Amino acid sequence: MIHFFGFVFVSSAGFGFEFSSVVMFAAHQTLNTRHRISISKLLKMKKKKKNKKNKKNKKKKKNKKKKKNKKKKKQPNPPQHPPT
Length: 84
Fold this sequence. Notes:
Blueprint: H1 15-32, H2 39-72
Helix pairs in contact: 1-2
């Protein structure tokens, strides 16, 4: 059984586009699954995905920095002889 949805768009700057992409995804999902997925759930899923991606990128950056700092470490200074 396939459900088709009719949505009314209230487009505000920025949010309109984001919302429409989510709705398109919702329509696509309903064709694949037998149960309905609520818009709020989809928005949550999208946010989770974004957060996961950001976390991953942050970790990559941190590791890169660590590597760079490791390479940067100076050689220890040779012991200095006191003047005789």
